[in-house]
Amino acid sequence: MASEGGLKPLVVWSRKAAADMPDVPTGSELGYDILSAASRGIAGPINMEPEALKKLREVAGQVANDPAFIEDLKKLNMPMDVLIGDEYLAFMKDQDKAYRDLWEKSPWI
């Protein structure tokens, strides 16, 4: 609807501007350090064998770089920002802190 002029988007809650709405600011550009994109993660047991963990991360990277997968996501207008392993853990910790800080500041926004 936005691309047809039916809506005027005010913000996107992602790291980067949306490819199809480059003039719409991100939340961080407006002073809100919050991401609200659909985040998906894969987890395993805390004592997972190192080789199994390595393979899981390798396969996740292969899927994320598969041209057919990327094309399907584009058709669905689903941007992808792949974070694997420690990068994803850091992202989740940052998001947890950001939401807790926002709640302390203003619980109902």
Helix and strand layout, with pairings?
Layout: H1 50-64, H2 67-75, H3 86-105
What does this structure look like?
It contains 3 helices and no strands. The protein has 109 residues and is an all-alpha fold. The protein folds into 2 domains: 1-37, no CATH class; 46-105, no CATH class. The longest helix has 20 residues, at 86-105.
Key words describing this protein structure:
109 residues; mainly alpha; 2 domains; 3 helices; 40% helix
Whole-number count of domains: 2
Largest sheet: none
Oligomer: single chain
For the record, give the distance between the C-alpha atoms at the N and C termini, rounded to a whole number.
25 Å
What is the strand content?
Answer: under 5%
Mean pLDDT: 86
The helix count comes to 3
How do the SSEs run, as a string of H and E? HHH
Number of strands: 0
Radius of gyration: 17 Å
Poorly predicted segments? none
Shape: flat
Q: Helicity range of the residues?
A: 40-55%
The structure class reads: mainly alpha
